[in-house]
């Protein structure tokens, strides 16, 4: 066998395996179970453009502060994580919350930042909206993940003074990025583990992981195989990703989101072992402890050309679309906390 033929054979085996898995899934209805999402049944009135523009300006300001003035937010940059945590704390306190700082750390002292609205009817049922505020070394992390933190801050502002049936928490996590992801020094790992040790009933966790980059050009969106066969090739949507145990949560959330938001949504609930990239954020810490959780994402490196680079700056993001996404998430969150 020639070297070229050998290379073709090596390349063809994974493709053949994927094809077999897809055919088996189709035969058993498994792919339908994982990928079928509810269609929108109605559309609420479109938000006032003035409201969208004002929200977009606030989101831009948060991202500019975190990714601009503070910049790289990593343990190797002295004071950067503390500065980011202080900013989130000040924003939540300014919205009227009593803010709690959860300290942890094996290799250093780290903090999660939390604000809570106790449930008026079912306080023991907890809904969490969270995002990580750290970055990889060398990147100011505008999309990854100042965009997610900005959304958490603005969602907290929208819900301030409300009386949800369930308890609602807003959390900014430290140390999602390597080398901490899913280790004992990951903020979400610490948070989920302590919640389980306290016997808390977390009924939903939404991890906001990169919300700011969109591109309507054909071919602008890629996927891990075999998902490209099922989803659009334009990076003009927001994604909702859950594991199979969180399928009902994914379906509820995407259905409510689609009632309000102008930015399209795609969703899936898959075995994390089948699509390993589905585990790459703070929601996976909650999966590991049996809590229903999902990731809301613009799909990171599968569309964003500046992923984990120094060019991940505030100027790269689309704050108009991001504002529409946040308004859709607010509507979905209201539905979840009132269930």
Distance between the termini: 63 Å
Structural class: alpha/beta
Write the CATH homologous superfamily of the largest domain. Zn peptidases
What portion of residues belong to β-strands?
15-25%
- Unreliable spans are 1-29
Helix content: 40-55%
Note the run of SSEs as H and E: HHHHEEEHEHEEHEHEH
Mean pLDDT: 88
Global Rg = 20 Å
What would CATH call the class of the largest domain?
A: Alpha Beta
**Reported CATH architecture of the largest domain:** 3-Layer(aba) Sandwich
Please give the order of strands in the largest beta sheet.
1-2-4-3-5-8-6-7
The number of helical segments is: 9
Question: How would a textbook summarize the main sheet?
Answer: 8 strands, mixed
Report the CATH topology name of the largest domain.
Aminopeptidase
The 3D shape can be described as globular
**Extended strand count:** 8
Return the domain count: 2
Provide a descriptive summary of the structure in words.
The structure is a single chain. 40% of the residues lie in helices and 17% in strands. With 339 residues, it is an alpha/beta fold. The chain has two domains: 1-36; 40-337, Aminopeptidase, CATH 3.40.630. β6, α7 (247-260) and β7 form a beta-alpha-beta unit. α3 (49-70) crosses α9 and α7 (247-260) crosses α9 (319-337). The protein is globular. Mean pLDDT is 88; it is low at 1-29.
Summed up, what is this model?
The protein is of the alpha/beta class and 339 residues long. It has two domains: 36 residues; 298 residues, 3-Layer(aba) Sandwich (Aminopeptidase), CATH 3.40.630.10.
């Amino acid at each position: 066998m020639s070297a070229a033929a050998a290379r073709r054979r090596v390349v063809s085996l994974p493709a053949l395996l994927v094809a077999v898995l897809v055919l088996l899934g189709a035969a058993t209805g498994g792919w339908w179970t994982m990928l079928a999402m509810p269609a929108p049944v109605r559309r609420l009135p479109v938000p006032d453009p003035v409201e969208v523009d004002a929200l977009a300006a606030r989101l831009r300001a948060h991202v500019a502060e975190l990714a601009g003035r503070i910049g790289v937010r990593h343990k190797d940059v002295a004071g950067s994580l503390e500065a980011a945590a202080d900013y989130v704390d000040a924003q939540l306190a300014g919205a009227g919350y009593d803010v709690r700082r959860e300290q942890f750390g094996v290799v250093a002292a780290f903090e999660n930042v939390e604000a809570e609205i106790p449930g008026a009817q079912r306080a023991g049922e907890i809904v969490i909206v969270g995002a990580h505020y750290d970055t990889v070394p060398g990147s100011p992390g505008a999309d990854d993940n100042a965009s997610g933190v900005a959304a958490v801050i603005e969602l907290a502002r929208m819900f301030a003074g409300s009386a949800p049936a369930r308890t609602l928490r807003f959390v900014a996590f430290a140390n999602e990025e390597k080398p901490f992801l899913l280790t004992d020094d990951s903020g979400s790992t610490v948070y989920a583990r302590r919640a389980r040790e306290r016997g808390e009933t977390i009924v939903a966790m939404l991890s906001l992981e990169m919300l700011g980059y969109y591109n309507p050009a054909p071919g602008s969106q890629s996927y891990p195989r075999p998902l490209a066969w099922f989803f659009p090739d334009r990076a003009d949507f927001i994604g909702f990703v859950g594991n199979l145990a969180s399928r009902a949560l994914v379906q509820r959330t995407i259905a409510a989101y689609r009632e309000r938001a102008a930015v399209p949504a795609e969703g899936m609930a898959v075995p994390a072992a089948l699509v390993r990239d589905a585990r790459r954020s703070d929601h996976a810490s909650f999966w590991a402890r049996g809590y229903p959780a999902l990731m809301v994402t613009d799909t990171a490196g599968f569309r964003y050309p500046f992923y984990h680079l120094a060019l991940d700056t505030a100027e790269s993001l689309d704050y108009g679309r991001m504002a529409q996404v946040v308004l859709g998430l607010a509507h979905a969150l209201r539905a979840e906390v009132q269930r």
